Amino acid sequence: MTEAGIRHRREAAIPVVFKGKKLDKGFRADIVAEDKIIIEVEAISALTPIDDAQILTYLRMSGIRVGLLMNFHSLRLIDGLRRFIV
Which domain holds residue 30? Predict the structure, then answer.
């Protein structure tokens, strides 16, 4: 991403706000690119609904609308790629 000129942050902090109060502990997204897309990277035999819920939570908490869930354990990357828009 750096070589392509794409601004990104790894292990980007996503704060948690509950009833108007910011909690000390938050979430960490694997990659946030251009402050417009969250990319979660996995290397597991199969994606589960928990993986979907994780990225959806990150999207809601961050205000970012687009997310990619990428599973590198798939034979073809396209088979392990899911896009989320909230």
Answer: 8-85
CB 22 within 8 A of CB 34: no
Q: What's the pLDDT tens digit per position in 3-27?
A: 999 999 999 999 888 888 888 778 9
Q: Sign of the C-alpha dihedral, residues 36, 26, 51, 30?
A: positive
* Tens digit of each residue's pLDDT (9 = 90 or more) over 30-66: 999 999 999 999 999 999 999 999 999 999 999 999 9
Burial grade of 6 (CB within 10 A; 0-12, 13-18, 19 or more): exposed
| Number of domains comprising the chain | 1
